[in-house]
Amino acid sequence: MNYLVMEVHPAYAVVLDEEGRFLKAANLRYQVGDTVQHIVELHRPRKKRPALWMPLSGLAGLAACLCLVFFGYYQPNFTPYGALRIQINPDVELTLSRTDRVLELEGLNDDGQVLIEGYDYDNKDRKDVTEELVERAIDLGYLSGGETVSITVTSSDTDWQAREEQEAREDLEERYGETIVIQIGASSTEPPATEVVIPVTPPATKPAPEPTPEPVPEPTPEPAVPSADQDDTDYGPGSDGTTSYQDTDYGPEADGITDYESPDDGAYSDGVTDYEDRDDEQDADDSDDDDLEDDVPDDDDDSWDDDGNDQDQDEDD
């Protein structure tokens, strides 16, 4: 394609192509009216769309700045890092930052509250506040020549604590070393705490109530069994309800043994009469015996059994 040079500039040239377009090309020592076949076309840079991460990067940068401000300036200057206690007779405590900035001032006793009353410690460091408080104590009559000022520093950082105690002591000795004594640590001249003994009367002990005995039920008496040896009759109102009869020889209560005594006469007679003899009947007995002797058969050959029967007669029959 042929190009016609229309304008010439130090850095570029304007050419016209065969399609009627004006293009910018690098000026390779062209002259107006030259016709060239090859050019180095110059293109305008395209506008880039803003990336989505641009707002986030801005927020991240802001957060980094805030962290830098907090950790680099605010935290060392406005965050409590330790405390310094000054004991004269007034007892006061200073809350310090890591850079020795006084953040808070507190009176620990009545004289300490009087000492700091009306005192402004804003934007002051530890050196200025300690020296000014010692000066106020002298002016108010709490401190005079030869007396002791005790300084105690507390912190979780032991190195910072030791450094602060040493610097505070040197600063005060430099200004008041000829009149007062500066001591590191708690004052040993504090009056001992008054021990108050409150008598406590022990409460009167009440006697323990005796346990109430539980009612014991009375035993029910068993029905009395009437004795078989009583003289009560077996019938009638005086009967004890128990018959005293001996066992019968018959029936379900029989013991199988008959207790009857042998009769004096009859089939079961033992041949012995148990009647007692009487004098008035002696004669009658004698006559009866004679009659009996007459009735006895004379036949010596007859035999008689125990019942008086003739055994021979029985055999004949």
From TrEMBL:
Compositional bias per record (Pro residues), positions renumbered to this chain: 200-224
Domain of life: Bacteria
InterPro entries xref list: RsgI_M
Membrane-crossing segments per the record: 52-74
Composition bias, Acidic residues: 250-264, 273-317
Family annotation (Pfam families): RsgI_M (PF23750)
Anti-sigma factor RsgI-like middle domain span: 82-179
UniProt-annotated stretches for the region Disordered: 155-317
Keywords, in A-Z order: Membrane, Transmembrane, Transmembrane helix
Protein name: Anti-sigma factor RsgI-like middle domain-containing protein
Organism of this sequence: Candidatus Avoscillospira avicola
